[in-house]
Amino acid sequence: MKINIKRLDDNFHMEASNDDGNTLSMDGSSEIGGQGKGMRPTQLLLAAVGGCSAIDVIMILKKQKQEITAFEVEVDGEREKVEEYSLFRDICLHFKISGKVDQDKAERAVKLSLDKYCSVSKTLEPTAKITFKVSINKNGK
Known about the structure:
- By secondary structure, this protein is an alpha+beta fold.
- The chain folds into two domains: 3-32, no CATH class; 41-137, GMP Synthetase, Chain A, domain 3 (2-Layer Sandwich).
- The chain has helices spanning 41-63, 103-117, 119-124, and strands at residues 3-7, 14-18, 23-26, 67-82, 85-100, 129-137.
- A hairpin with a 2-residue loop joins strand 4 (67-82) and strand 5.
């Protein structure tokens, strides 16, 4: 796996690209001169754990013939200052799923993802406590 990061201006606006040509924008925080032109790297880390687990959960629920009409993950992370850097210490993923989905199956799918399949959560596990909750809306979207 290879990612290329290219600086786009005189400050911190950058573009990351992968081998498939997909791109995303990154920027620094406004406190250091960022201009809000992209997500900050730590935000991308939270997006990565939410996205990685979402892929696992959707795959598991599809295999179980659950009918998903809408799917969203809200990720909340709390950092703690350690020396000159900050570590995520608490991360909570809130899975919001609509459709004909069994609550127990959804919760088991999330647990399987975080405990076994999601590489990003396993990477963060040594320093962060990762918790989750699942909300099911059976009435559609």
